[in-house]
Write a structure and sequence with these properties.
Elements lengths: L3 H20 L5 H26 L1 H6 L1 H22 L5 H8 L2 H12 L6 H18 L6 H5 L3 H23 L5 H21 L13 H26 L1 H6 L4 H13 L5 H19 L23
Helix pairs in contact: 1-11, 1-13, 2-4, 2-10, 2-11, 4-9, 4-10, 5-9, 5-13, 6-9, 7-14
Length: about 300
C-alpha cells in the first residue's frame, strides 16, 4: 500500500508534463508559472500559513537559503519546463526530467564530497550516450554537428536546476518542516515571477476555458497533491526507494502523450530512452565505490518531485 504514494505522485507528474505541452500553445510560460504559484500558495496557506507564522523566527534565520530553494525549484525549473514544451516533445521532456536523480548524485560528488561510485560512473556514461541518441533522433553525431535542440537544452537545464536544489537541501539541512519550507519557497518564487508576469502581454496571460483547467491541474495536482504523496512516500519508504519510481515517469508520459497529444513514439525514443534510464537505474542501485571506501546510500532522489 505504501508504494501507491510515490506511484501516484509520478502519475501526477506525468500529467504535469502533458499539461506543460498543452499550455505551450495556450498561455505564456511565465503566466502559467505565476498562476500555479498563486493557486498553490492559497491552498497550502489554508493549513501551512499559521504554523509557518508561529515558526517565523526559524524561517527568518534561514530565509536566504529558502529564497534560493524557491528560485531553483519553483521558478527556474517550472519556467524552463514550460518554455521547453514549446519546442520539444512530452516524451523527451519526461526522459530528461528522469535524469534528475543521476544529476543529483553527480553534483553531490562535487558539492558534498560524496564518493564516486561505479554505478554513477558507468550510469553517467550510459545516460550520456542514450541522450545523444535521443536528442540526435537516432544520429549521435548530429548533436556535435548541429548542436542540441533548444527545447531539449532548456529541459536539461531545468533538470540540472532541480538536481542542484536537491543537493542543497542535503547540504544545508534547513530545520524547517517540509510543508512550511515548500510554502516559503513558493512565496519567494512568486516574488521572482511577479515582475516577469507584469511584462507578459494580456493576450498571452488570458484566463479562459482553455487555460483555467491547465492552471487548476498545475496548481492542485502537480503542486499540492503531488507534494503530499511524495512527502508521505518518503516518510513510509525512504528517499532511495522512492527515487526508483522516477524511472517510470517517461513510460507514463509517453503513454499519455500518445493517447492525448497524438505524439508518435519513434525507435530513437525507445532505444535512447531505455539506455538513458538504464544508466539512471545503474547509478541508483550499484553502490560499489570507484575509489576508496564504501559510500553511504545516496539521498539525492528524496525531494525530487516536491511542489512539482
Amino acid at each position: 500500500m505504501s508504494y501507491l504514494f510515490p506511484l501516484f505522485a509520478i502519475l501526477f507528474w506525468a500529467g504535469n508534463v502533458i499539461v506543460s505541452k498543452m499550455a505551450a500553445s495556450a498561455i505564456s510560460p511565465t503566466a502559467i508559472t505565476f498562476y500555479r504559484l498563486v493557486l498553490a500558495l492559497f491552498l497550502m496557506g489554508l493549513f501551512t500559513a499559521r504554523p509557518a507564522w508561529r515558526n517565523r523566527k526559524v524561517i527568518l534565520r534561514h530565509w536566504p537559503k529558502l529564497a534560493l530553494y524557491g528560485a531553483l525549484s519553483s521558478a527556474v525549473f517550472q519556467a524552463l519546463s514550460y518554455r521547453a514544451a514549446e519546442t520539444t516533445t512530452a516524451t523527451n521532456m519526461a526522459i530528461l526530467t528522469a535524469l534528475i536523480p543521476l544529476l543529483s548524485m553527480l553534483l553531490s560528488v562535487v558539492i558534498l564530497r560524496d564518493p564516486l561510485t561505479l554505478g554513477m560512473a558507468a550510469g553517467g556514461v550510459m545516460s550520456f550516450l542514450g541522450l545523444l541518441y535521443l536528442v540526435g533522433q537516432g544520429d549521435m553525431l548530429s548533436v556535435f554537428q548541429h548542436g542540441i535542440h533548444v527545447g531539449d537544452g532548456l529541459m536539461l537545464l531545468a533538470a540540472l536546476s532541480y538536481a542542484l536544489y536537491g543537493v542543497l537541501l542535503r547540504h544545508w539541512k534547513v530545520p524547517v518542516p517540509a510543508w512550511q519550507s515548500t510554502f516559503v519557497q513558493s512565496i519567494f518564487a512568486l516574488i521572482y515571477m511577479l515582475p516577469l508576469y507584469l511584462r507578459v502581454p494580456a493576450a498571452q496571460a488570458a484566463l479562459d476555458v482553455n487555460t483555467i483547467p491547465l492552471i487548476l491541474y498545475a496548481g492542485i495536482f502537480s503542486s499540492v497533491l503531488l507534494s503530499y504523496l511524495w512527502i508521505e512516500g518518503v516518510h513510509r519508504l525512504g528517499p532511495n526507494r522512492c527515487s526508483i519510481f522516477i524511472n517510470l515517469l517517461p513510460l507514463f508520459t509517453a503513454l499519455a502523450a500518445f493517447l492525448m497529444l497524438r505524439e508518435q513514439l519513434h525507435g530513437y525514443h525507445l532505444l535512447g530512452g531505455a539506455v538513458t534510464l538504464a544508466g539512471v537505474l545503474l547509478a541508483q542501485t550499484v553502490q560499489r565505490p570507484l575509489f576508496g571506501r564504501t559510500p553511504a546510500a545516496p539521498q539525492a532522489g528524496g525531494n525530487v518531485p516536491a511542489a512539482r
